[in-house]
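Re: beginner question about structure tokens

> Can someone show what the tokenized structure looks like for a real chain? I only ever see the sequence side.

Sure, here's an example I had lying around. Input first:
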Amino acid sequence: MTGDILLKMQLSLGAISNGMTVYPINFYDDVSSFFKEIELTVEIALDKAPNTFFLPEYSLFVQCYSLSDFELAKKQVDPATWQRDYLNLVSGTVEFIRIWEDIWYKHSDWIKSYFQYRKLGTKSIFARDLRVIPIAKQQANTFLDAEHLLGKVQAKFFYGLVVPKHRQFRNITSEYYIGDQKLVGVAAFAKPMLMKEEGFEGQLSGELIRFCSILGTRIVGGLSKVIQYYHQEEKVDNIMTYIDLEWNRGQGYQSIGFQEVQLTKPILYTFNDQGERVICPTWEDAKVCTAGNKKLRIYFSEN
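And the corresponding structure tokens:
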């Protein structure tokens, strides 16, 4: 994280400079100004939650959550209540996104591109025009760093969705190449593990850690295609994955057969000297707390 971004976060927490209190930077206004710049219709959703916008074009709520707001909130609730309040907040909405202040300042370029592409309209790429191939970790991470909000990951297997030469007449665009094939999507999987869970003892389980297409595109059938490829390669009995509740509901995964098996606890974070999130053991010391994840699993009847 750059020094400027770290300074903004420090100011938001009420840092002291030369013996004087520095007023917090209101990143809520920064987000609001951006929406106005790209001419999005914005309504203030005061009846939903503080610092929340409603974008009627997308039926989308966007909540801006500052570090200072969390400092106040955690004095009134515990992590379980924090998660329950968020689930109640998003219940009944078509789509709800929570943007944390540190994420906004660290990844504002990605977030701005995300909303700009949504305004322009997402382009569809069809999986029937693609094939799945193994790719190198560095190739995958270069793609993920640019195209996914959370960037690169540690994984065992990386697969790319590429446009083979005989399908390039489709004029699918990409600045990423694997040889002479255009790379439009990446999936990262963990090494399969034998399950110990009651009722599933001895089953071989895989984990999908990341699935990502080029920002502004949607690969229709792409998730199913990489899931089947990994299943055939590793002969797993099932595959699990985690869905970030602050950005996703998991409908796309559930539509192809994933089932919800668990709601994980919120994750507590503080910041290191570079302003990066690091796991925090206590609620009292936490500077950020996620809403948790939805754990999903898809089962295969036979290999």
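Each token stands for a local structural state, so reading them left to right follows the chain. Residues 10-24 have pLDDT under 50 and may be disordered.
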